[in-house]
Structure to design on (289 residues):
């Protein structure tokens, strides 16, 4: 768990550094070109650094140990951070939509095209490297905050590539392509915000894990000859911790210590499959009729 915290915080810190670099170079590119699509990309990066700061502190809080007031830990802080992120993304997207719409009606020439293209190419490379690292961290930690941040930066990759295409188009007089790309970026941002918000709300509302988790519990129980069956399987996730609760049915003739031992076998098997899980087993006697 400690290693998960370090990896997750490193991803959040790197996101802040990359966002700061992107803000500086995109601000310069926009000042040189007055491009709507670059402005959209610049505003997105400006938003990124705010969101990344929120994520950084939320992640630190999420990995703080459980206490008396929060016996299940602080993992939902990540979900709150991701929900805030989706709100920021949506707000900026609507503002950018208004600006792009105005430029679509009143197109303007774009200056310093070659310089701007190189700057956006550098932005693209930096963002790709960040996403690759975030995806690696997510594969190791299952952090929702990192996943949300990565999903947003994947949108940035597509948006930056589209900006580069718009800049190339402007060299051939296709200046209308610039606001069109800006509008496409807006819809990419809105789609990303929707996905992040949905997953965050699912976690905050204790939405059950994938059905395959409950099916795996049933499979393990069915393979244990000393357990008659199971019922009331409940699952949820908080942060990167999966909570699994199950009632195991035992013959009333079995001793409590033996029933407990069989229950521990199920717990161990589940932890081998879901190493970040918190498994709670109830031992229920079943009277013979």
């Amino acid at each position: 768990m400690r290693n998960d915290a370090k990896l997750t915080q490193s991803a959040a810190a790197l996101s802040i550094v990359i966002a700061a670099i992107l803000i500086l170079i995109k601000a310069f590119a926009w000042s040189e070109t007055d491009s709507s699509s670059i402005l959209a990309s610049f505003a997105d990066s400006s938003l990124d650094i705010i969101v990344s700061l929120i994520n950084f502190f939320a992640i630190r809080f999420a990995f703080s140990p459980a206490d008396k007031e929060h016996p299940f830990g602080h993992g939902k802080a990540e979900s709150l951070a991701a929900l805030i992120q989706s709100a920021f993304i949506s707000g900026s997207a609507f503002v950018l939509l208004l600006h792009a719409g105005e430029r679509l009606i009143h197109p303007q020439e774009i200056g310093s095209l070659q310089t701007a293209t190189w700057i956006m190419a550098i932005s693209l490379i930096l963002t790709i490297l960040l996403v690759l690292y975030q995806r690696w961290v997510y594969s190791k930690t299952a952090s929702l905050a990192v996943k949300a941040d990565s999903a947003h930066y994947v949108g940035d990759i597509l948006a930056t590539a589209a900006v580069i295409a718009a800049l190339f188009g402007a060299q051939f007089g296709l200046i209308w392509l610039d606001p069109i790309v800006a509008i496409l970026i807006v819809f990419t941002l809105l789609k990303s915000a929707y996905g992040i918000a949905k997953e965050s709300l699912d976690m905050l509302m204790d939405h059950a894990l994938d059905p395959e988790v409950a099916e795996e519990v049933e499979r393990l129980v069915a393979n244990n000859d000393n357990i008659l069956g199971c019922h009331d399987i409940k699952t949820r996730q908080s942060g990167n911790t999966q909570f699994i609760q199950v009632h195991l049915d035992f013959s009333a003739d079995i001793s409590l210590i033996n029933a407990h031992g069989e229950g521990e076998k199920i717990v161990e098997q589940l932890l081998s499959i879901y190493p970040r899980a918190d498994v709670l087993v109830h031992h229920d006697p079943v009277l013979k009729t």
